[in-house]
Amino acid sequence: xxxxxxxxxxxxxxxxxxxxxxxxxxxxxxxxxxxxxxxxxxxxxxxxxxxxxxxxxxxxxxxxxxxxxxxxxxxxxxxxxxxxxxxxxxxxxxxxxxxxxxxxxxxxxxxxxxxxxxxxxxxxxxxxxxxxxxxxxxxxxxxxxxxxxxxxxxxxxxxxxxxxxxxxxxxxxxxxxxxxxxxxxxxxxxxxxxxxxxxxxxxxxxxxxxxxxxxxxxxxxxxxxxxxxxxxxxxxxxxxxxxxxxxxxxxxxxxxxxxxxxxxxxxxxxxxxxxxxxxxxxxxxxxxxxxxxxxxxxxxxxxxxxxxxxxxxxxxxxxxxxxxxxxxxxxxxxxxxxxxxxxxxxxxxxxxxxxxxxxxxxxxxxxxxxxxxxxxxxxxxxxxxxxxxxxxxxxxx
Amino acid sequence: xxxxxxxxxxxxxxxxxxxxxxxxxxxxxxxxxxxxxxxxxxxxxxxxxxxxxxxxxxxxxxxxxxxxxxxxxxxxxxxxxxxxxxxxxxxxxxxxxxxxxxxxxxxxxxxxxxxxxxxxxxxxxxxxxxxxxxxxxxxxxxxxxxxxxxxxxxxxxxxxxxxxxxxxxxxxxxxxxxxxxxxx
Lengths: 397, 184
Prior knowledge:
With 397 residues, chain A is an alpha/beta fold. Chain A has helices spanning 13-23, 38-49, 63-75, 86-91, 93-101, 126-129, 144-158, 188-194, 221-250, 276-289, 307-314, 334-345, 366-374, 377-381; strands at 9-12, 28-31, 56-59, 80-84, 107-112, 137-140, 167-172, 180-183, 258-261, 268-272, 294-299, 301-303, 319-324, 327-328, 332-333, 351-356. In chain A, the strands form 4 sheets. Chain A has a 7-stranded mixed sheet with strand order 3-2-4-5-7-6-12, with helices on both faces. A 5-stranded mixed sheet of chain A has the order 9-11-10-13-16, with helices on both faces. Chain B has helices at 15-28, 78-81, 118-126, 132-143, 148-158, 161-183; strands at 2-10, 32-37, 47-55, 70-73, 93-97, 112-116. With 184 residues, chain B is an alpha/beta fold. Chain B is built from 6 helices and 6 strands. Chains A and B meet through strand 1, strand 8 and helix 10 of A and helix 1 and strand 2 of B.
């Protein structure tokens, strides 16, 4: 029986992600190229053209069309895939709500990138954060191995009968998509064992015509949203089960909803999403060398938001330092707000520092994180913004 | 163990491929690599950089290399255009693609400067002015971090057919060149 892990090899993140998507056997792919997502869909288009992947690759004129095409494809009962970034995710926005509310288990990889204006092609989390209310499940990858492994898990979660919701796999643009590091792919037999063919619970069929996506009035719409919220809540358990099953099969675990690092005896918890978590781990180690007991809580699943898990994990710390790469202008860092609310609801007394950094691709080295812990006064006085350059600020800013 | 490498070159010179090849060779050697380009809008001929980290455990730092142990300069004109040695650690290695001697480059400081005629080797060996695999061979010969066999494996993984053999020949010539320097 040749059900094995493939040999670890050094690959560009995008290429490894595309190879993993290919092993999920999507039947329809529709995508519009945008930096830094481009390499992912280029590799998939090539696999289809070369006959290595039996799928229909639909070339579309925009991201709105890409998401509409995968909506339509998935509604006919096939497994569908798309990927995008930044403005592309924004252009899809209205369709994202439709895909989720129609309970279509589409998987989309987002190579996370900042939003214009000013035009900026580099990484932050604003694109994903702008889609947080759409009904998509959102899971963030810390490294390229996790980005690959999440593709299989995403379909398994999305297509689970208790969930039936689309999943957005969030991968830091450039930082992960354009980096080369060792990854191990599943061989096709193992991938097929983990992810059997998609069996839709309903599908459009011209021989038995029915209508989905009807109008609901004030008498029913509210209940529809309640039902969607219950599916999101059920996904909390399914995400953990799927991560566990994947771990048993492959020996690889990256956490389910959250993952803890050196939190057991920690006074300070560093909290973040995506590849930033690696910098947080590095910072926690450096802080411990300075005698500050620091640990990390990686938020792997952002939607559904695992509030109870987070409150339980942070119940014993004195201080929580959240670093956001997404921002709600006029309010604050988005993850930070949700963490604050989760802790308040659970009666956790920890002091929460909410910082924002890394916007538009500004690197967040471990030293920035350490400084935010030991010298928080300046960023606290600047709405939580880390490493602001005063020379770019005007008087009164 | 963490060794950080910064590669300077110009768009079109295979700066990203150089980083990828080094990463594959490092992996062949049983170590953990990480490689990535300077993120942005590269243009043919403009100064570009790539970065490689080499460790005995998975690398979790993902910021650009600002304090390298080793700098590789694929285009010697960059020495006068930007500070290629910025942040280089004392005693650090600067590997430059040039036919000039290291003393002629005017690189000051407590640094070890080694020059290799990588473009000349590439032109003579494969009739292309792409210096990256010759520099990779020289890197292996000087540092001992990657063996010629690991470099060969990386080239075979990355290049198809005749191109693999030609690039391996470039690497071997540069490897032998720096080995001869060490003996003299």
